[in-house]
């Protein structure tokens, strides 16, 4: 027998007797049927979920390293001089020293010295390091090496460079000025996170 809607029927007979061992006219028998309906109900609920807010990262900005350019009297050390001279003589051995920042900055930056010019304070100028960081002279149509004025640059650390020189000057001038540019590069922007070899050779 099919039941619609689908469900389960259970039936039985219940006898109500008035005597524990005998049947009498007052006894009654009842047929009982129970129907259990099966049903599929769709129930719903909802909740609102907010997007997770990003957690702020505590950070302190690292300032750009400050750079210095000094000319010192030459010493036996190949990386520095002994003091910054006030008065020198043509031919004296000196060290041109460029430094930037501190050891913390050395883990982040590389430096390159370039575009160095010597001038007499007036119109006379000579380029001793060109824009690519090479030692050169502007008196030539092409950039030629002139170790007589300044030696090749050496980078003992990523933020330190030096070059050795014999003192020279312009004719009829007692003062000579030097001006250089320093290019700072992020190590993370370089190959393998290290300073280019051409900028960092002992």
Quickly describe the structure.
The chain is mostly beta strands.
Can you walk through the features of this model?
Residues 1-202 form the ZP domain. The chain has 202 residues and is mostly beta strands. The protein has two domains: 7-37, no CATH class; 67-199, Zona pellucida, ZP-C domain (Immunoglobulin-like). The protein is built from one helix and nine strands. It has a four-stranded antiparallel sheet, with no helix packed on it. A three-stranded antiparallel sheet has the order 6-5-9, with no helix packed on it. Strands 1-2 form a two-stranded antiparallel ribbon. Residues 138-145 have low confidence and may be disordered.
Identify the CATH class of the largest domain: Mainly Beta
How large is the count of helical segments? 1
Strand runs, count: 9
Placed side by side, the strands forming the largest sheet appear as 3-4-8-7
Distance between the termini: 100 Å
CATH fold-level topology of the largest domain = Immunoglobulin-like
CATH architecture of the largest domain: Sandwich
Organism: Haemonchus placei
Main location: membrane
GO molecular function, one term: structural constituent of cuticle
Membrane topology: Single-pass type I membrane protein
Describe how the helices and strands are arranged:
Layout: E1 7-16, E2 28-37, E3 67-73, E4 93-100, H1 103-106, E5 109-119, E6 125-129, E7 154-157, E8 160-166, E9 177-186
Antiparallel strand pairs: 1-2, 3-4, 4-8, 5-6, 5-9, 7-8
Features:
202 residues; mainly beta; Immunoglobulin-like; 4-stranded antiparallel beta sheet; 1 helix; signal; cell membrane; ZP domain-containing protein; transmembrane helix; CUT_N
């Amino acid at each position: 027998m099919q039941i619609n809607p689908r469900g389960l029927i259970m039936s039985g007979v219940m006898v109500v007797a008035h005597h524990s061992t005998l049947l009498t006219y007052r006894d009654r028998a009842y047929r009982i049927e129970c129907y259990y309906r099966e049903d599929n109900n769709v129930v719903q609920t909802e909740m609102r979920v907010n997007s997770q807010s990003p957690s702020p990262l505590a950070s302190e900005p690292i300032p750009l390293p400050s750079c210095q350019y000094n000319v010192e009297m030459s010493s036996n050390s190949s990386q520095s001089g002994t003091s910054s001279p006030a008065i020198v003589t043509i031919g004296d051995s000196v060290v041109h020293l460029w430094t930037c920042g501190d050891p913390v900055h050395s883990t982040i930056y590389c430096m390159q010295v370039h575009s160095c010019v010597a001038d007499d304070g007036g119109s006379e100028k000579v380029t001793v390091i060109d824009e690519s960081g090479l030692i050169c002279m502007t008196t030539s149509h092409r950039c030629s090496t002139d170790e007589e004025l300044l030696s090749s640059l050496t980078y003992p650390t990523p933020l330190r460079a030096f070059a050795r020189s014999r003192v020279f000057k312009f004719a009829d001038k007692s003062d000579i000025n030097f001006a250089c540019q320093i290019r700072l590069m992020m190590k993370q922007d370089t190959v393998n996170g290290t300073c280019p070899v051409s900028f960092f050779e002992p």
